């Protein structure tokens, strides 16, 4: 009987550790804590804080720059309300994790809510990117695409590997 209890406790501890690592990894990923979008997206959309540089490379006109800046500003404003919701979800996750009895179903529910919030933010920023792309000519978009291909880490992307 004692051995069964120890094995059960070890399983619970292993599940709790896995959930903790998964939760911490999820928290380490850009997410709802920055208005619901990754930090690089919050700066200037899918190109990180490099949008101005990319628009320089594309020889964007002042009118195009103004339109694109307005597009991303509107997206950031749309996502601003997610900050408090994201904070509440994180606090809820931490409380569930620290509870005497680990409720895997409740933790999964919060994780799913956090994931849905991040997905909504990602979708909004993607739409802003589409709207911005429509402001540029195909040639300008090609120049930006080449720059992003050459330096994905600098442009808010990740290096393969």
From TrEMBL:
For this protein, the record's InterPro entries field holds: Cpx_auxiliary_protein (IPR052211), LTXXQ (IPR012899), Metal_resist (IPR025961)
* Predominant subcellular localization, coarse grouping: periplasm
Q: Which Gene3D superfamilies match?
A: 1.20.120.1490
In the UniProt record, the signal sequence range is 1-28
For this record, the Gene Ontology CC terms, alphabetical, are: periplasmic space
Entry keyword Signal = yes
- UniProt keyword annotation of Signal present: yes
Subcellular localization: Periplasm
Domain of life from the UniProt record: Bacteria
Keywords attached to this entry: Periplasm, Signal
Stated family: Belongs to the CpxP/Spy family.
Q: What is this protein called?
A: Periplasmic heavy metal sensor
């Amino acid at each position: 009987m004692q051995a069964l209890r120890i094995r059960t406790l070890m399983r619970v501890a292993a599940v709790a550790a896995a959930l903790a690592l998964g939760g911490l990894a999820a928290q380490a990923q850009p997410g709802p804590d920055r208005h619901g979008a990754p930090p690089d997206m919050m700066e200037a959309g899918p190109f990180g804080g490099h949008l101005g540089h990319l628009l320089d490379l594309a020889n964007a006109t002042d009118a195009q720059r103004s339109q694109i800046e307005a597009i991303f500003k509107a997206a950031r404003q749309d996502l601003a309300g997610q900050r408090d919701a994201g904070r509440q979800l994180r606090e809820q996750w931490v409380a569930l994790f620290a509870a005497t009895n680990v409720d895997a179903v409740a933790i999964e529910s919060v994780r799913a809510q956090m994931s849905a919030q991040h997905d909504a933010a990602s979708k909004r920023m993607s739409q802003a990117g589409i709207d911005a792309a429509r402001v540029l000519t195909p040639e300008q978009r090609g120049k930006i695409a080449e720059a992003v291909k050459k330096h994905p880490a600098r442009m808010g992307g990740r290096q393969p590997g």
